[in-house]
Structure formats: structure tokens, C-alpha cells
Amino acid sequence: MTPDTIAALYGVKLNRDRHPKEFRNWDGEQINCKDMKDDLILHEISHYIVATPERRKIVDYGLGYGPNANRWADGAVSYATMSFDESNREEVVTCTIESILAALCSINPVELLRDRNFITSSNHWDIKRDFDESIDWLQTKSIINRAWFPAQLQPAISLAAWARLTNFKRALKKVE
Question: What are the domain boundaries of the chain?
């Protein structure tokens, strides 16, 4: 499975000719992903999956806050439709679904979570609590099933992808 396949199955347009620095990662219609690594594309697709249909029409999904908020002349905060705390909480859920998608795409999800500072020795995030709460939220919204498979992708998931996701679940138990 590839980010392109996942994007297509979710109906997300990837614009590989436009760099996100030209406008935004998500401009309200497409992910601008020229020169973007696959894990970052998966992160943006994950934002799309988690966002409500209304927020999918808004630049940067209406998050407004985050590491890139100050790089735009028009100020990303002007697009914010949620509080700073809500935005941070959604980022945790986004990283959770991103890690599942990464496993399906043969990207090491544990390393990805480390890179995103999800797995850390500090008290910034409580991995067990935050990850479990995110899994519960994703299941409640029927985004993933009890086996963590994204509902939209189930018809396209291969046996190899199933094995990668199972191995990811085992690896997380070792991290805890």
C-alpha cells in the first residue's frame, strides 16, 4: 500500500506539483506535497481522515495552531476553528491514525511516533493513555475497527499489510 493508494481510497487529491511552502499543506481542496516525504503525506491524509467534512473545506483543516502557524503572512490562526487544546488533542489522534497508515505502507510506525515525539521519556504525552484514548475515539467514529484496520481501506488491505499492523501492535506493547 502507498500514500497515493490511501489518498485515492479516501478521495483526497494529492498535488505533487505544488510545494506546501507556496501556500499550505492542505489548502482546503488538496494536499500540496511536492518534495514531501511519504510519512508527511500520510500525516496530512490523517488530518483529513480525522477532520469533520466541514473542516476539510478550510485551510489547514481549521487547526490554525502548530509549528507552522507563524510562517504565513496572513497568520494561520485566522483559520482556526478550534481552541489550542482541541488542536493539540486532534494532533495526538492524527499521529495515531498516521502510525496505523504507516504500518500499512511499510514505514516503521514506532520510529514515526518517536519522530513525532509521541513516544518520549518526558511527561509531554502519556503514550499509553493518549494512544489508547485515540484508538477508542477512532473506533467510536468508525474510522478504524477493533483490529485497528481503517474502514475505508479494508477492501484493499493485503495479508502482508495485516501482518505489518499486527507487528506494530506487538512492538507498541514492548514500548509501554
Answer: 3-175
Long-range contacts of range 127-135, CB-CB < 8 Å, 24 or more positions apart? 127/175, 127/176, 128/176, 130/92, 130/96, 131/96, 131/172, 133/92, 134/92, 134/93, 134/95, 134/96, 134/97, 135/96
pLDDT tens digits, one per residue of 100-133: 999 999 998 888 887 776 554 444 456 677 888 9
The residues near 124 (Cβ < 8 Å, ≥ 6 apart) are: 117
SS3 assignment, position 84: helix
Mean pLDDT of the chain: 81
Q: Show the cell assigned to 124.
A: 509531554
pTM of the shown model:
0.84
For residue 169, pLDDT over 80 is answered with yes
Nine-digit cell at 102? 504507516
